[in-house]
Amino acid sequence: MLRPTNEQFIEITCTTDFAALSIKGHIAIDSALSDVILQTLPEPHVIEVERISFLLKVDLAIALRSMRQDSRPLFQKLNTIRNQFAHRANAQLDETMARELKNCISEHQGNILRLSDDSDLWKTPRQILELCTAAAFYDVIHSLNILKFHKLEMEALREETEILLQEIGPIDHPAKGLFSERVKNRFAEKSKSLSKK
Questions:
Q1: Do residues 143 and 171 both lie within one domain?
Q2: What single-letter DSSP state applies at residue 89?
Q3: What pLDDT digit, counting tens, does each position of 161-190 carry?
Q4: 35 vs 27, 58, 130, 170, 178, CA distance in Å?
């Protein structure tokens, strides 16, 4: 499944059809979640992430610490709404369900939207579904961007460490021994704290 571009996602949210918005928005979020999981796993080719259910992807991303725990309620509610539109021809999004959906947005997801609760953009169920779908999608995109940044940062750190060790020279150089000792001590500290948990 190919994650949509920002332009494609905006096109999805501009539809006036509730079912299309719910189902296509869900597909876009699902695709982005797959990308987050694949970006996080050290051996992503080992797992067929596309076969994992939507909510299990959310839980896996949270368990991998790639997504925030407080994001889950919005994904869960969007999944429920999507299932109603996908499986019931007469499904509707009424005022009550729209309010429940809006109440699932975490503070973090609200910050992504940069809208106040009293904004005119929250007035109709259609607007609420659009904004909540956007909040969930961009929450995942935000997590994906952070993961990519951390991966690049770690790669740069590893490369600089290799360069430093080459510049230091022979293995018996005092700085090399000091560096190795500090790494071993840090590892021992982390191992000790892990065993206490």
A1: no
A2: T
A3: 778 777 776 666 666 677 777 877 887 887
A4: 13, 12, 22, 42, 40
Per the domain annotation, does 50 fall within a domain? Answer: yes
Q: Same domain, yes or no, for 15 and 81?
A: yes
Q: Which long-range contacts (CB under 8 A, 24 or more apart) does 90-96 make?
A: 91/18, 91/19, 92/18, 93/18, 93/22, 93/125, 93/126, 93/129, 94/125, 95/125
Q: What is the pLDDT of residues 50-84, one digit of tens each?
A: 889 999 999 999 999 999 999 999 999 999 999 99
What is the tally of structural domains in the chain?
Answer: 2
Inter-residue contact 109 to 157 (CB < 8 Å): no
Q: Mean pLDDT, the chain, as a whole number?
A: 86
Q: Which domain holds residue 189?
A: 150-196
pTM of the model: 0.78
Cα pseudo-dihedral 70, 72, 78, 79, rounded to 10:
-170
Q: Does the pLDDT value for residue 36 go beyond 90?
A: yes
Neighbours of 139 (CB within 10 A): 24
Per the listing, tokens 């369900």 go with 97
Are residue 98 and residue 157 in the same domain, yes or no? Answer: no
